[in-house]
Amino acid sequence: MAIDADTARKVARLARIRVEEERLPALAKEFDAILGFIAQLEEVDVEGVEPMTSVTPMRLRRRADVVTEGNRQAEVLLNAPDARAGFFAVPKVVE
Amino acid sequence: MTALADLALADLTLAEARDGLRAGDFTALELTDACIARVEGGRALNAFVHETFEVARERARFADNRLALGMSPDLCGIPIGIKDLFCTEGVPSQAASRILEGFRPPYESTVTRKLREGGAVMLGKLNMDEFAMGSSNETSVYGPVVSPWRAEGSEEALTPGGSSGGSAAAVAAGLCPAALGTDTGGSIRQPAAFTGIVGLKPTYGRVSRWGIVAFASSLDQAGPMTRTVRDAAILLRAIAGGDPLDSTSADIPVPDYEKGLSGDVRGKVIGIPREYRMEGMPEEIERLWERGREWLREAGATIRDISLPHTRYALPAYYVIAPAEASSNLARYDGVRYGRRAALAPGDGVAEMMERTRAEGFGPEVQRRVMVGTYVLSAGFYDAYYNRARRVRALIKRDFEEAFAQGVDAILTPATPSAAFPLGSASDDPVQMYLNDVFTVTVNLAGLPGVSVPAGLDRRGLPLGLQVIGRPWEEGALLDVAASLERAAGPLPGPARWW
Questions:
Q1: What are phi and psi of B317, to 5 degrees?
Q2: Model pLDDT for residues B113-131, shown as the tens digit of each residue
Q3: CB–CB of A16 and B431 under 8 A?
Q4: In angstroms, what is the C-alpha Rg of chain A?
Q5: Per-residue confidence at A1, pLDDT binned at 50, 70, 90?
Q6: Mutation test of the interface with chain A: which of B338, B377, B473, choosing the one with the most A Cβ atoms within 10 A?
Q7: Contact call for A11 and B368, based on CB within 8 A
Q8: Which of A93, B52, B188, B405 is spaced 20 to 30 A from B89 at the CA atom?
Q9: At B212, phi and psi to the nearest 5?
C-alpha cells in the first residue's frame, strides 16, 4: 500500500506532531518503507490465535481503593513549564 | 586526591569490589573516587551525560559507615551508572530526549530506590538512544556514545550499540563495575555484545518498571550490565522482585542467583534454532555460534537442533507493537505538565502548543515511531496491523513454549548479526538499523529471559557475543549456561585505551 502525503499529514495531525508541508512527501516514503516491512505479517496464518496478553497467565493485581499518596501539589507542579496559582497553565482554550 | 595506583580499583569486578569493601581493603569513598577519576578521564566516550559526583561521594561515605557496622548488602558502596531512562530523585532524567530537558523527578524509580537503599553509589546518568529507540546510540539528544573499542589499526569511531550504549561503554571502559540498562528489543544485549560485556534481560515482570520512562510497556524490562556473569547475578538479585507500584511485576520469589551459580550444564539440553541461521550472516558469526555449541557440548550439555518457525516474523511484529505502545506512552509529552514547551506564535492554541512542542522535542526516529504507531492504531488499520501483530506474537511465544515442553532447557544463538559498526554508517535507513535486533527481539516478544555473553573477538579485534535464552523465571539456570560459556571463552582482553 502506498502512503501519500495526505495520509502522512493526517497521521502527523493525529500524533500531534507538526510537520512542515515540504517534509510530507519524504515522510510518506519513510512510512511506506516501514509498512512494507511490516506487511510480511500478512503471510502468517493467525486463524483462531488469541492475541498474547502476558508471559505467565496472571490476574492483574488489584489494590484497596484508598488514597495512598496525596497533598503533593507542589511536587506535581514542580516540573511544569507554566504553572500558576496551583494549576497547570496552557494557552486559552475557550473563546 | 586518589593515588594513581588506586585507580585500578575501578577495574575490580562487582564481586571483588564487594569482597574488598567488606574485608576493609579499601573504602567505598576510595572506590568511588577511583571511578570518578575514570569518568572524568573518559569524557571523550560521551557515556555519562549527567555526572552526580557529589551525590556519589555522600552515598559512599554513608556506605562506609554501614560497612563499618558489618551486615552490609551486596551493593553497599558499589559505584553504579544509571541509564538516563530511570527517574532519579532530584537528578535530571531525560531519556536522552530534548522534550524532557530540565526535568528533575521528585521521586525515585523502584529499581534505583532498591539500589539506593542497598547502599549503591550512583555515579551519574548514562547516555542512550532517545526514549531507548535505536540500536547505535545515535538518536540521543546528547550526541552518540563512542565505543571504547576500535578495530585493530583503525581510529574510526564505532558505535557501542544501543539503546543502552552509555551503560555498555562505561562498563567496558572501566568507568564503573556495573550499570543499569533497559531492553525493549535488544537494548541491553546488543550493546553488551558490541562492547564485550555481560548483559542480562530478565523475564518480563521480574523487575519493576515503575519510574522507568516507558517506551513499549509490554516489552520493556530493566537489567544488569556487568563485566562478569557473577556480577550480573548479584545485580539482578538486588533489583528484582514484585512491586505494588507495577501491576505487571510478578510476586515470584527472587532466589540468591549468585549462591546458586554453578556454571554446571551437565545433562542440560541446549536448543539450536535453525531459523537463526540467516542468509548473508557473516562467517565469523557462524563460527562463533559453532564454537559456543562445542563449548557447551564439552561441558556436558546435549546439543539439539530445534525449530522456532515464526522467528522471521518477530521483527515485523515488533515494529507494529513497539511503535503502537510508544505512540500511546509518549502521548504524555504535551508540554503541559513537565518537560519542555515550545515557544508559541501569537494566536497559537493548545493544539499548536502540543504540535510545536512535540515537533521540537522529539528527534526524527522518535517522531517516526510515534507516527507509525499512531497509524497502525488508527481506525480501519487496528485489526490489520495491531491485532495481527499481537496474534503473531502469541505464535512466537508458542514456538518457544513447544521447544521448552520438548525438554529444551536453554537456547543458544548469536547475540548480533555483526560486530560493532562505525558511527554514521547505518543511520539513513531505519529498516536496515532495525535488523540489528533480529536475534534479540524474539525474546522480548515472548517475555523470556536472555543474556549476552562475550565469546571472543573477530579478526579485526572487536568483541562478539553469544546469546542464551532461558525458560521464564529461570534466570538462575540461564546464568549457569552463561557462566559455562564465559569459562570456556576464557579471559578476554578489554579495549585498548585511546581516550
A1: -65, -40
A2: 999 999 999 999 999 999 9
A3: no
A4: 23
A5: low
A6: B338
A7: no
A8: B188
A9: -100, 125
